[in-house]
Every structure is written in structure tokens, then in C-alpha cells.
Amino acid sequence: MGFPRQVRLVEMSPRDGLQNEPGPVIATAIKTGLIDRLADCGLRHIESASFVSPKWVPQMGDAAEVMAGINRQAGVRYSVLTPNLRGFEGAQAAGVDEVAVFAAASESFSQKNINCSIAESLERFLPVMEAAGKHRIPVRGYVSTVMGCPYEGDIDPQQVATVAKALYDMGCHEISLGDTIGVGTPLKAKRMLEAVAAHVPMANLAAHFHDTYGQALANLYAVLEEGVAVIDASVAGLGGCPYAKGASGNVATEDVLYLLNGLGIETGVDLDQLVATGHWICGQLNRHNGSKVGQALGGNC
Amino acid sequence: MGFPRQVRLVEMSPRDGLQNEPGPVIATAIKTGLIDRLADCGLRHIESASFVSPKWVPQMGDAAEVMAGINRQAGVRYSVLTPNLRGFEGAQAAGVDEVAVFAAASESFSQKNINCSIAESLERFLPVMEAAGKHRIPVRGYVSTVMGCPYEGDIDPQQVATVAKALYDMGCHEISLGDTIGVGTPLKAKRMLEAVAAHVPMANLAAHFHDTYGQALANLYAVLEEGVAVIDASVAGLGGCPYAKGASGNVATEDVLYLLNGLGIETGVDLDQLVATGHWICGQLNRHNGSKVGQALGGNC
């Protein structure tokens, strides 16, 4: 298909980046400060919180306060994760622009991660989809473990396609394909994408790759060649899956942006400001900056 | 051209990896231990030392002892850097299998790095080429700053092609194209490679990419698509250019091997053993393991 002219970067750090952060719960002001800075960088889609029980994810317990505290900018889509109807109701009351639901391509991962089968998880989303439809709030669908599972190993691309199609058919406007444990390589990414794209239009697909084995940018380059035009990433590489060995989580937004700039693909995001934001949040969290571009362009890392 | 079926990995860590290591001079036994372990992993081409004045590069002062101390394995090419005739004579006396010379694509980088113009550096290699020809020792040619220079910024691909062709015409059997400061991106890498391949056969080209901005694997994937079949890398990402900002140096061999394995490209190198070797040398040097694959697959990093 050839490279897209523009890519929408979906910034994951406030949710996927912070949700597993160890230590005390991060102050709401730091979260809203991060989100506002990300919007100032030019990011137009920011996953800002998760409306989930604080028993499960203590770092996301202040989701409503976060949504109330940010300085909403026109043209920015503030989305949140809503695993169930209760979460959706909280999100809707907080005035979010988009919600998201989360399924796995691996049966074992689904069982261990959310305590139900893939089919059961899809059923649980139905009331969310219905309520979202009523309020005309778009729903994003995540599919995890699309290139491998910590329990099952390889995942059949057809299985990924089946789950992605189920989410799309159920009304999700965009399906984000997650290499949760970062085990993919470029041709595997292409084969997986091709299987999904046979059932869901390319324009409705996003790549959500973790960098656990250092392959994320090569995999992104490979799916950009296929025409993917939406990429999930996290500033300073914040985040990580507790089920994956090794420290790395989300691919760093700075590194993705450097790649896209080099390919002449427009994003509307300012690299220097993004690098500064990455250093700012790492300073707030006293955390290593996981972006190579961030490291190369200086700051306290 | 399509992917090569096999790739020869040229292991850089004993030379490019260790030459700028700060602190006291590393014991010869550690260097030979590293080289022997690398050969045990299945690597068939190991740049083992640099025959250069210890005044310039103290870490390489024991090049002759290193060459004498390794357990030579049949089928392994032990190469060394020889910037001048005196270096060549030491290397030849030490019984090396290959020597290498080093030129820049950037005039400013040549002046600041080796105190002479590009043309002068090429002239200085003539006696080395002549002596190597007499002893039938193959010569590898490096071209640095092929995708950008810390002083000049962008480098014209035609300028890279001119220097690469000069080295090839002078008798170098292989030209290694170095993104010394790691600023390249995939399409830039392809354009640079295409310019060079118009003058030097693809089979005689190698990719030597640093990972300063996290782009090395994406760039390698892009040049593999063009048919490059020789890749330079350094276990645990050892090394780094003192002229580049940021900590990163050579792309990690483990990460490159993971990519190649995923693409179904043969190398003859064992990943687990290579990961263990990366952790071993990092333990010896009390150094962070710069390989994401190394980090993901455990060990003391």
C-alpha cells in the first residue's frame, strides 16, 4: 500500500504508562500536568486514565479527578479505558471523548489477565457498547498478545483477526493491535496485519507495539509499509507489562516520532517539546528515561 | 532485491565496543575471553583489536597480546583495525586474518577525528593496501558518518558513494557503511545505500549502524530489504562514539540476531549463548547491558 502521508500518534503514557508504576500513587496534579504538556506538544489523542476499580489498579483510582483537572484543548481526543459498564458510567459522567475496551487474542492470557474467556470478555463489553452508542461516544478496541503470549507462545494471525473482527462488528471504530510482550518481528507483524486487514479496513487499525526485545521500531516501519496510519506510543517509554520479562514496555513516542519525521510523515507533534516532556515526567517520577532519542538529546536521564 | 537468505554478522565488541571504554585498561584475559566466547556462539567474523598507538587508544595497547592469547578457531576470521603501515606490520606479525582501514564521508569529521582531509586519509592507506596485497591479507574499508555528521549535519549520499568507491577501487574487498552517530532513518538508509550500490556491488557492502536514536533495527530492516547481507554489531551494545551525544553506541548483536531469526535469515549464531556472553562481559566490566533482548532474557543488567 505504501506509507501513509500522515500518522495519528495515540499517546499511552497517562494510562498504559502509569498504571503499573510501582510505589505510592502518583499525585493527580502530576497526571494532569503530563496530559496538558502532551497536548501542548501537538498530540491530538491522549489515553488519559482508566475507569477501573482502584482495588485492581491503584494508580488509576483518581480517574474522575484527572479528567476534571486537565485543561481541555479543542481538537484533542481524551480517551479512557472502561472495562465494564460501571467504568463507562464514570467515564461518561467525566465527559470523556472516547472509551476503550480490552480483549486478548490468547485464551490463556485472557484467563490469567482478566479472569474470563475471550468470548466472555466480548460479551461483557456489550452493555458498554450499547451505552456508548446511546451517548454517541466512540469506542476503541484493544487486542492484546497479537504476536505472542507469555503462556501460549505463538498466536495464530487468524485468531487475532477473529477477535479484531468481533470488536469491529460490535461497533468499535478502531482496533489497536497490541504486541503486549514485544516478541514480534517485522514479517510476523506484516502477516498478522494482513490477516486482520482481510476483515477490518486498514484505516480502522492501529499498531500498539511494546519494545521489550528492541523490535518495535522495525515492526512499526514494516506495518507503515502496509499503510497503517495510527500508532500507539508512550513518552519516555513509560509503562511495561507486568506479565512480560524485562523492563521495557511501550515503545517511546519520541523514538517513533523521530522515525516518522525521517520518513517525511506528518504528525503535528513537536519533537523538542516532546523530549522535554519525557524528561519532565521522568524527573517527577524519579525514573529512567526509556527513550533513546530522549537520552541522545540530553536531560536528566 | 529482497531479503538475503544468510547474513554474516561482524562482531565489533572487542574493538569498537571496548576502545572507548572509560576507566583502567581492561585486562588482556577479559578481551581474549570475550573473543573466544563470541567464536563459541558461532560468530565467524570478529574484529578483535586495533593496532594503533596506545597514546591514542590506551584500551587497544595490548593488541598483539590479544591476538596471541585467543584460541583460534578454524573458520573464524579475526580482523583488526590498522590505521597505518606501522599498525599493519604489527597486525601482520600477529597473524591476523584481515585488516581494516577507516575513512569518513564528512570532511569536518575526518579533520577532527583523524587530523587530515578525506583525500589525505585515503593516500595514507596506500602503503597499507600495498603491504596487505603482498601478504594476501584482505582489507576491509570503513566509511563513517554515512547518514550524518556531528559537525556538518546531513551528508550527501553521493559523497558517501565517492569515498566508498575510492576504498573499493583501492582494493578493499568489503565496505562497511557506518552511521557513526546513529541519526539515520530507514528511507535515508535506503537512499544512501542505493547511491553506494551504484558504484560498489551490494555483495561487498556491510551495514554498521549505531543505535543512538533507537533507529538501528528499523534501518537494518530497510537495508535488508535492499539485499545487504553483512551486518556489524556489538554484543550487549558495547561501545559508543565519543563524538555523539547520548550513551548509545553500536546496535546490540543480540537484538540484530533476534530480528534476523524472526525474518528466517540464517546466521549460524546461537542466541542464548550470545545473550549469556553479553551478560558475562557486562559483569566483567560492571557495565549496563545495552541489549533489549539481553535485558528481556534475564541476567544481571
From the structure above, extract its key features:
homodimer, 301 residues, alpha/beta, TIM Barrel, 14% strand, globular
Share of helix among residues of chain A?
40-55%
Give the N-to-C terminal Cα separation of chain A. Answer: 39 Å
Give the largest interface pair and sizes.
Answer: A-B, 36 and 36 residues
In DSSP terms, counting alpha (H) and pi (I) runs of 4 or more, how many helices of chain A?
12
Spatial shape of chain A: globular
Overall mean pLDDT of chain A stands at 94
Instruction: Write the CATH homologous superfamily of chain A.
Output: Aldolase class I
**Order of strands across the main sheet of chain A:** 1-8-7-6-5-4-3-2
The sequence of SSEs of chain A as H and E is: EHHEHEHEHHEHEHEHEHHH
Q: Identify the quaternary structure here.
A: homodimer
CATH topology type of chain A: TIM Barrel
Structural class of chain A: alpha/beta
Structural domain count of chain A: 1
- Give the low-pLDDT segments of chain A: 241-246
Query: What kind of sheet is the major sheet of chain A?
Result: 8 strands, parallel
The CATH class of chain A is identified as Alpha Beta
Radius of gyration of chain A: 17 Å
Which architecture of chain A per CATH?
Alpha-Beta Barrel
